[in-house]
C-alpha cells in the first residue's frame, strides 16, 4: 500500500468493518472483461456469503472463473474545501481476494442464508426450504484482505 499510514492491519478491525458493511462489491473477470456487482452479503470467519437468482451473467462468469475480488466501505463522509482539489473522503474500507465455491447442500444453504440475514438483522426468520431451493448461494473464501482508512 502506497500510503502505509492509512493501512489497517489489525484483523479485529478488518472483521469489524466487514460486519458493519451493508453492500459488498464483487469483482470478477471473464475473457478479459471486468465485471463488478454490488451485492448484499454476510460475513463470518473470513468467508463472504452471497445469494443470487439461479441464472445470470455473474453465475456464468463464476462457474468458469471462480477467482474474485471484493470491496466494502463504512463511515464514508465527504470532506469539502474552498478549493476543489482539496476535497476528500473519510472512510474505512476493506479489499480482498479469494475463490468462490457454490453451496448446494440444503443444510449448508440454510447456514449461509442465516449468516447473510444476520449481517442486516438478528430478527429475520430463515426462509423455507422451498425458498432456499429457488436461490443460488455461494461463498467467497478469502485468501487475502487489506484495510485502509482516511480520517
UniProtKB/TrEMBL annotation:
Membrane-crossing residue ranges in chain numbering: none
Domain of life per record: Bacteria
Protein name: Putative flavin-nucleotide-binding protein
Organism of origin: Desulfosporosinus orientis (strain ATCC 19365 / DSM 765 / NCIMB 8382 / VKM B-1628 / Singapore I)
Stored InterPro entries: Pyridox_Oxase-rel, Split_barrel_FMN-bd
Amino acid at each position: 500500500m502506497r500510503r502505509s499510514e492509512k493501512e489497517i492491519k489489525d484483523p479485529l478491525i478488518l472483521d469489524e468493518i466487514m460486519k458493519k458493511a451493508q453492500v459488498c462489491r464483487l469483482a470478477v473477470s471473464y475473457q478479459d472483461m471486468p465485471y463488478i456487482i454490488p451485492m448484499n452479503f454476510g460475513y463470518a470467519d473470513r468467508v463472504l456469503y452471497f445469494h443470487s437468482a439461479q441464472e445470470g451473467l455473474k453465475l456464468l462468469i463464476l462457474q468458469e472463473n471462480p477467482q474474485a475480488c471484493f470491496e466494502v466501505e463504512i463511515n464514508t463522509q465527504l470532506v469539502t474545501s474552498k478549493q476543489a482539489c482539496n476535497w476528500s473522503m473519510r472512510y474505512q474500507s476493506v479489499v480482498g481476494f479469494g475463490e468462490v465455491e457454490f453451496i448446494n447442500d440444503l443444510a449448508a444453504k440454510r447456514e449461509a442464508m442465516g449468516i447473510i440475514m444476520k449481517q442486516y438483522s438478528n430478527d429475520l426468520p430463515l426462509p423455507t426450504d422451498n425458498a432456499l431451493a429457488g436461490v443460488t448461494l455461494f461463498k467467497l473464501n478469502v485468501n487475502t484482505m487489506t484495510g485502509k482508512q482516511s480520517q
